[in-house]
Amino acid sequence: MALIDIIFPLAIVAVIILSKAIKIVNEYERVVIFRLGRLSGVKGPGLFLIIPIIDTVVKIDLRVIAIDVPKQAVITRDNVTVAVDAVVYYQVIDPTKAVNEVENFRYATAMLSQTTLRDVIGQLELDDVLSNREDVNRNIQEQLDISTDPWGIKVTGVTLRDVSIDETMLRAIAKQAEAEREKRSRIILSEGEYMAAEKMKQAAMLYQEVPASLKLRELQTLAEISREKNMIVVSNTTDLGEIAALSKAFAKKE
């Protein structure tokens, strides 16, 4: 009985130690092992053994992690206040650095994402933020990737989710867009009038060189009018000499 009383507790202790020594990690996980406080290595995936009490382990997930960056009030370069939020995607590529180089890589990456978002947006004008989102996303991603590289982290993507502007600024932007459209329409109209004047100048010069062509043009116009079913009265009181004189005067004026 005395031997059994000794062996049974030892067996229980051995089972407990063995259960603590056996570790299993998934394919997407790695375990950083510290032996008596010193880095021993990285294990996984699958089954491996550690020394209980002597070894301590830190499990790291290697899958892509998404950070929801809360809305940040940012003043753009042209002094417009906007509220911007984004989503940042990153992945741990070096578990050893992620454990040793930063205290809490998740929290540090989230805080760095917020400050980088404000820094990048603050260097841009509002029009650039609204119209060039792909470039803004790429710029934020590149800066985050450089900053997190010493931590063994790779930033795989950044997406601006929303850019909010207050009502006063929205009305100002609408007025600016309306003024811009009005300016474009006036420019197009002026260009059309200029081209028409150029063509009229060229036609006047041709009619001056060949006066008979002006009479032919007049007859052609009369023929086109005659094909209409409406009653139209045309009074032709200007002779060919007067028409040629007018054409010549118009060409000289140009």
TrEMBL record:
Q: Give the main localization category.
A: membrane
Q: Which GO terms describe its cellular component?
A: plasma membrane; side of membrane
Which UniProt keywords are given for this protein, alphabetically ordered? Membrane, Transmembrane, Transmembrane helix
InterPro entries recorded for this chain?
Answer: Band-7_stomatin-like, Band_7, Band_7/SPFH_dom_sf, Stomatin_HflK_fam
Family indicated by similarity: Belongs to the band 7/mec-2 family.
Name it: Slipin family protein
Q: How does it sit in the membrane?
A: Single-pass membrane protein
Localization, per the record, is: Membrane
Residues in Band domain copies: 20-177
